[in-house]
UniProtKB/TrEMBL annotation:
<dbReference type="Pfam" id="PF00501">
    <property type="entry name" value="AMP-binding"/>
</dbReference>
<keyword id="KW-0436">Ligase</keyword>
<dbReference type="InterPro" id="IPR025110">
    <property type="entry name" value="AMP-bd_C"/>
</dbReference>
<keyword id="KW-0067">ATP-binding</keyword>
<dbReference type="GO" id="GO:0006085">
    <property type="term" value="P:acetyl-CoA biosynthetic process"/>
</dbReference>
<protein>
    <recommendedName>
        <fullName>acetate--CoA ligase</fullName>
        <ecNumber>6.2.1.1</ecNumber>
    </recommendedName>
</protein>
<feature type="domain" description="AMP-dependent synthetase/ligase">
    <location>
        <begin position="55"/>
        <end position="412"/>
    </location>
</feature>
<dbReference type="InterPro" id="IPR042099">
    <property type="entry name" value="ANL_N_sf"/>
</dbReference>
<feature type="domain" description="AMP-binding enzyme C-terminal">
    <location>
        <begin position="463"/>
        <end position="538"/>
    </location>
</feature>
<dbReference type="Pfam" id="PF13193">
    <property type="entry name" value="AMP-binding_C"/>
</dbReference>
<dbReference type="InterPro" id="IPR045851">
    <property type="entry name" value="AMP-bd_C_sf"/>
</dbReference>
<keyword id="KW-0547">Nucleotide-binding</keyword>
<dbReference type="GO" id="GO:0005524">
    <property type="term" value="F:ATP binding"/>
</dbReference>
<dbReference type="InterPro" id="IPR000873">
    <property type="entry name" value="AMP-dep_synth/lig_dom"/>
</dbReference>
<keyword id="KW-0007">Acetylation</keyword>
<dbReference type="InterPro" id="IPR020845">
    <property type="entry name" value="AMP-binding_CS"/>
</dbReference>
<dbReference type="GO" id="GO:0003987">
    <property type="term" value="F:acetate-CoA ligase activity"/>
</dbReference>
C-alpha cells in the first residue's frame, strides 16, 4: 500500500481524486495490516509495545504522544515519557503479582493516568478492563465480578463507588495518587513487556445488550492489526496530526479509536477532561490545533443547536471529522458542511467487531444518510430471516463475512451468547437492520428490535428522526412504535425543542405535517411528545428507544388497569 496523497475535497457529493482509494479497494489484504506492526518482523507480540515502545525504539521518543486539557490544567507527554510511565505502572503491577491473563480493571476519569494504566496492564500481559468514569456501585461490581478481576487501579474519589466487600475476587486496589508518588525508575528496552500470542486476551469491554446484564466482550492482541490499519486509512493519521477522540476509554470507541489506533499510528492524542461544553470543545480545537476529530452524533447535534457559536473560534486546523455510535442525521452532515466547512465521515462498527467495518474513507463520496461502504477486505451481507442474502436495495439483517482481525474472541463466560452472533454459517450477525445500494453504500434502518410495524408497514425510526430534526424547532428526536389496537403499533416521536421554541399544539401539528409532507404519510408520527431531555446511554450517548417504549407501555397498562 502506498501513502495516500492529500486530496482536496470540493463538495460532499462531488468528484474527488480517488486513485489511491481504488488502489486500496482492489489490492487490500488483511495481511497488509500485519505488516504495519513490528510483530510482523520480530514475531514478538504485545499490543502495548506496538502502541508506545516501538515508536521510542524507532527514534520518535521526543514526539508528543498525549496532550491533556482540563479546565485549569494542561499537560503533555512525549512517547518516551509515556513509555517510562507505562513501565512504572507495569513494575508496580508486577510487584503486586499480576501475571498474564489476569483481569486488571481501570476506573479513572479521562486523564493520561487512565490511558497509561490501561497500556501498563496490557504491557504485562494482563487483560485490561476499562470502566466508564460515571459508573455507580452496581455497574462497577457486576463487571469486575463477571470476569473475576483481581486488581483495580482507581483514585481516591472514584473508589467511593467500588463496593469492595461485594467483589470477592478483587485482591488489590491501587491508587494513582500513590503510584504517581513513587519515584520513576526508567528502564531501557522491553524489560516489563510480556510477549504473548495473537490470540491472547487484550481488553474486555462490557456492553449492555437489549436484555438485562452487560456482557463482557473480550478482544485479542490480534485486533492491533485492525486498529492500526483503520487508523491509517479511516482516521487518515499522518505524522503531524493532532487527533482528538472525545470518548472515554470505557467505551470501545475511546479505547480503540481514542487510544490504540491513533497511537499505533504515532499521532499526538488529545485527552480532554471534564464534561461537554460547546465553548470548551471549540476552544480546545483552536488552542491545540486539532486536525482530526472523532465524536458522536449526540455531540454534533448539541453543537448544531448552539447555532453560530462556532464563529467565535478559529477551527481551520480541522481537516478530518468522523462520527460513530448512532445514526448520523443528514441534517447534521449538511450543517457541518455549511457552517464548519468540514465533511463528517460516518463509521459503523460495534464493541463486538473490535474495529471499523463500514466507513466513509476520507476522499470518497459521502452519501448523507448512509454509513458508508465496507472497509476494504470486509464483505457485508443483507440477510433475510433464513440467512439468505437479499438483493441490493432491500432491508434485512446487517451481517458481515467472518473472520477479520478485530472480531471479538469470546463473550466472557457465555458461550451461548457468543454463538448467537454466528447462527448463519460464515456470517456475523450484528442485530442491526440495513440496506445496501448498488454502489455498496449501507443505510442503517435501526436495531432489529427498534423496528416499527404500523398497519403492516415497516418503518425505521432513524428516517423519521432525521426528518424531524430537519424542522428548525426540533433539537433531538427518538421515535418508537407505540402499541395500538388498530394498527399494531403507531409511530410516536419524543422530541426536545431548540432554544427559543415554546411547545404548542400548533407547533406540534406543524412538525407532524412537515414529516408527512417531506417523508411520507405512514411514517409521520401520530403522536409527538416534548421532553426536556431524551434518555440516553451514559457511556456513548445513544438514544434509548427501548426506554421510551417501556415508558409508553407502562402508561398504556396504567390506563387499562
Ligand atoms: C462503536 C459502537 C454498536 C451499535 C450498532 C448500531 C449503533 C454504531 C453506528 C450505529 C448507526 C452508525 N451504531 N455506529 N448506528 N450509524 N455509524 O457504537 O459500539 O456501543 O457496541 O454499539 O451502535 O446499532 O449495532 P457499541
Amino acid at each position: 500500500m502506498t501513502q495516500q496523497a492529500t486530496t482536496h475535497i470540493a463538495t460532499i457529493e462531488g468528484e474527488y481524486n480517488l486513485s489511491n482509494y481504488d488502489e486500496i479497494r482492489e489490492n487490500f489484504d488483511w495481511s497488509d495490516a500485519k505488516e504495519l506492526l513490528s510483530a510482523a518482523k520480530t514475531g514478538k507480540i504485545n499490543a502495548a509495545y506496538e502502541t508506545i515502545d516501538r515508536h521510542v525504539a524507532e527514534g520518535y521518543g521526543d514526539k508528543i504522544a498525549l496532550h491533556y486539557m482540563n479546565e485549569d490544567e494542561k499537560r503533555s507527554y512525549t512517547f518516551k515519557e509515556v513509555k517510562d510511565q507505562t513501565d512504572h505502572y507495569a513494575r508496580i503491577l508486577k510487584e503486586h503479582g499480576v501475571t498474564k491473563g489476569d483481569r486488571v480493571f481501570v476506573f479513572l476519569p479521562k486523564t493520561p493516568e487512565c490511558y497509561i494504566a490501561i497500556l501498563a496492564a496490557i504491557k504485562v500481559g494482563a487483560i485490561a478492563g476499562p470502566l466508564f468514569e460515571a459508573f455507580m456501585e452496581e455497574a462497577v461490581r457486576d463487571r469486575i465480578n463477571d470476569c473475576a478481576g483481581t486488581l483495580l487501579i482507581t483514585d481516591q474519589e472514584l473508589v467511593k463507588r467500588v463496593p469492595k466487600d461485594d467483589i470477592p475476587s478483587l485482591e488489590t486496589i491501587l491508587f494513582v495518587e500513590d503510584i504517581e508518588k513513587e519515584p520513576l525508575q526508567p528502564v531501557d528496552g522491553d524489560k516489563y513487556v510480556e510477549w504473548v500470542d495473537w490470540e491472547d486476551g487484550l481488553i474486555i469491554h462490557y456492553t449492555s445488550g437489549s436484555t438485562g446484564k452487560p456482557k463482557g466482550v473480550l478482544h485479542a492482541h490480534r485486533a492491533a492489526q485492525h486498529h492500526i490499519v483503520t487508523g491509517k486509512w479511516v482516521l487518515d493519521i499522518k505524522d503531524d496530526d493532532v487527533y482528538w477522540c472525545t470518548s472515554h476509554p470505557g467505551w470501545v470507541t475511546g479505547s480503540v479509536y481514542g487510544l490504540f489506533a491513533p497511537l499505533l499510528n504515532r499521532a499526538t492524542v488529545v485527552i480532554q477532561g471534564g464534561r461537554f461544553s460547546a465553548e470548551n470543545w471549540y476552544s480546545l480545537i483552536e488552542e491545540l490545533g486539532v486536525t482530526i476529530w472523532y465524536s458522536a452524533p449526540t455531540a454534533f447535534r448539541m453543537l448544531l443547536s448552539k447555532g453560530d457559536l462556532y464563529k467565535q473560534f478559529d477551527l481551520s486546523s480541522v481537516r478530518h471529522v468522523l462520527s460513530v455510535g448512532e445514526p448520523l442525521n443528514p441534517e447534521v452532515i449538511q450543517w457541518a458542511w455549511k457552517s464548519l466547512n468540514v465533511r463528517i465521515h460516518d463509521t459503523w462498527w460495534m464493541t463486538e467487531t473490535g474495529g471499523h467495518l463500514i466507513v466513509n474513507l476520507p476522499a470518497e463520496k459521502i452519501k448523507p444518510g448512509s454509513m458508508g461502504r465496507p472497509f476494504p477486505g470486509v464483505q457485508v451481507g443483507i440477510l433475510d430471516e433464513e440467512g439468505n442474502e437479499l438483493p441490493r436495495g432491500e432491508v434485512g439483517q446487517l451481517a458481515v463475512r467472518t473472520p477479520w482481525p478485530g472480531l471479538m474472541k469470546e463473550i466472557w463466560g457465555n458461550k451461548d451468547k457468543f454463538k448467537s452472533y454466528f447462527q448463519y454459517e460464515g456470517w456475523y450477525i450484528s442485530g442491526d437492520l440495513a440496506l445496501q445500494d448498488e454502489e455498496g453504500y449501507v443505510f442503517f434502518q435501526g436495531r432489529n428490535d427498534d423496528m416499527i410495524n404500523s398497519a403492516g408497514e415497516r418503518i425505521g425510526p432513524f428516517e423519521v428522526e432525521s426528518k424531524l430534526i430537519e424542522h428548525p424547532a426540533v433539537e433531538e428526536a427518538g421515535v418508537i412504535g407505540k402499541p395500538d389496537e388498530l394498527r399494531g403499533e403507531l409511530v410516536k416521536a419524543f422530541i426536545t425543542l431548540r432554544a427559543g421554541y415554546e411547545q404548542s399544539d400548533e407547533l406540534l401539528e406543524e412538525i407532524r405535517l412537515y414529516v408527512r409532507k417531506n417523508l411520507s404519510a405512514h411514517a409521520a408520527p401520530r403522536e409527538i411528545e416534548v421532553m426536556d431531555e431524551l434518555p440516553k446511554t451514559k457511556i456513548s450517548g445513544k438514544i434509548l428507544r427501548r426506554q421510551l417504549k417501556a415508558l409508553e407501555i407502562e402508561r398504556n397498562n396504567k390506563v387499562k388497569n
